[in-house]
Design goal:
single chain, about 475 residues, alpha/beta, Rossmann fold, 3 domains, 6-stranded parallel sheet, 5-stranded parallel sheet, 20 helices, about 50% helix, globular
Length: about 475
């Protein structure tokens, strides 16, 4: 068959199947997966798989679904019948007590960690940051800010715009943190070579955030991926992997890496007391969410499933990337101000976090530190960090609706949960405690720095340059 005939067959087959999909799409599009759509494309799949058109079609359908869900949420949001609820004296007293409690705890915590590691000149952290708007960006920004507060030297670097050679020569890092290349902010090959050479001369720990795939994926890893894993294992790239997920993430989502014997150390999400703190403000919104609406559509589907009735009935606010005009993301410096005006913040976990105890989500820690009452999806990971008297969980939409209505006009009841959760967060779940774990990791595994660390450049507990 000629190339033009093959292309014509692809177009005809795709058009026939696609027309049937569109006839039923309006009723099926709210599904949380695309297996139904995939089943309708079995016949043309064999024709299209070698041309890449199936993946393009699935991506287009995914975008259609995402836009449709987002449109429905925006229509509910901007047409909401909810009216602002007046603050009662009970609510004002409750808010004052929460702010006073949190301010005292944060003040003590900040004083304790102020320049705690100032003498650790052997730890100088260079971080390759991704583009703004994803979880890795906020993770690195919060980690860097708290590192600075503890006295550890830190420098933020962007591979796409900055000169790595200059950063290495000027800053003299002993720890380098980045995402693996598949994350979209990994390093060019030349930079990885430069890091390997620098490590050989001075000693350096290269910590990578791993790229991951679905644990339900049964296809074997590609040869390029196997080659990269071999490079990691041979010491050419990462010395170890770190991440904000629990160890089960490494075992299930990173099986090829795990099977190769590569090491993973969990540094979970946490709150950053430098920007997550309670503020005394009048409550203007019954509910509020600040999250990115990714083009996969899962966030929009979750929001529509759980929040449709509440969006329509109660006065609230949405902020974040990709929700459309009038719902801009909140700057990092304004996040505490945003949530200080919210009575209840729904915290909806995605399907992966429900099925696998990966993490309880950064928002759980952040909202607790800011003194915001939250309703969070009940997961195994949530209960690892918080008890039911600290963060209220729900297992179904009906339970979520009932809990929302119950707690909405009971500020003193909310206050009990908020204070308990805030106490737990500031005692155990801030980036200061994560930095303690990072320092312990580096002290426990000096071999990660390389042979030149001990022989020419550094001592075990302090920087001694020859």
């Amino acid at each position: 068959m000629s190339e033009s005939s093959l292309l014509h067959s692809i177009v005809v087959a795709t058009r026939a199947r696609f027309s049937r999909v569109m006839a039923d799409l309006r009723h099926r599009i709210l599904s949380d997966n695309l297996l139904y759509i995939r089943s309708l494309l079995v016949t043309p799949y064999k024709i299209m798989r070698h041309n890449g058109l199936l993946f393009l079609l699935l991506y287009i359908l995914r975008l259609i679904r995402w836009h449709y869900l987002t449109f429905r949420i925006r229509r509910l949001y901007f047409g909401s019948h909810g009216k602002p609820v007046q603050n009662t004296s009970e609510e004002e007293l409750s808010t004052r007590d929460i702010v006073s409690h949190g301010t005292q705890l944060i003040s003590t915590l900040m004083e304790r960690y102020s320049n705690l590691y100032l003498d650790r000149e052997d730890i100088r952290v260079l971080i390759n940051t991704p583009k703004e708007g994803n979880a890795q960006y906020f993770y690195f920004q919060d980690l860097a800010q708290c590192l600075c507060h503890t006295g550890i030297k830190v420098h933020l670097y962007t591979a796409s715009t900055d000169d790595l050679e200059a950063a290495l020569n000027d800053f003299h890092p002993t720890v380098f943190i980045t995402g693996d290349s598949a994350f979209g902010f990994g390093l060019p090959r030349s930079c990885e070579v430069a890091l390997r050479q620098y490590k050989g001369r001075h000693g350096l720990v290269r910590l990578y955030l791993p790229f991951y795939a679905s644990p339900l994926r049964v296809s074997p890893p590609s040869q390029p991926l196997l080659n990269r894993i071999a490079s990691h294992r041979n010491g050419e790239l990462a010395d170890a992997f770190i991440g904000y997920f629990e160890d089960v993430f490494w075992n299930h989502f990173c099986r090829p890496w795990h099977a190769s014997g590569l090491n993973y150390y969990s540094l979970p999400f946490a709150a950053n007391p430098c920007r997550h703190y309670p503020l005394l403000r009048r409550k203007e919104y019954d509910w509020g969410i600040a999250t990115a609406n990714g083009d996969v559509g899962e966030r929009a589907a979750l929001t529509l499933r759980y929040m449709a009735r509440i969006i329509d009935k109660h006065h609230g606010v949405i902020a974040g990337y990709n929700w459309g005009k009038g719902t801009a993301p909140v700057p990092l410096s304004r996040i505490a101000e945003f949530f200080s005006r919210v009575r209840i913040s729904p915290n909806l976990a995605n399907a992966a976090n429900v099925s696998f105890p990966l993490d309880c989500g950064a928002k759980v820690h952040e909202l607790s530190a800011m003194g915001v009452f939250q309703l969070s999806t009940e997961t195994e990971a949530l209960r690892k960090y918080y008890s039911p008297t600290e963060v209220v969980g729900f297992r179904s939409k009906a339970e979520f609706d009932a809990l929302f209505e119950y707690f909405l006009d009971k500020p003193q009841v909310r206050q009990m949960y908020v204070k308990n959760g805030m106490t737990r967060t500031l005692a155990e779940n801030t980036y200061f405690q994560r930095i303690d774990s990072l320092v312990l990791l580096l002290d426990t595994h000096p071999e990660l720095f390389g042979a030149s660390w001990r022989s020419t450049a550094f001592s075990a507990r302090g920087l001694v340059r020859n």
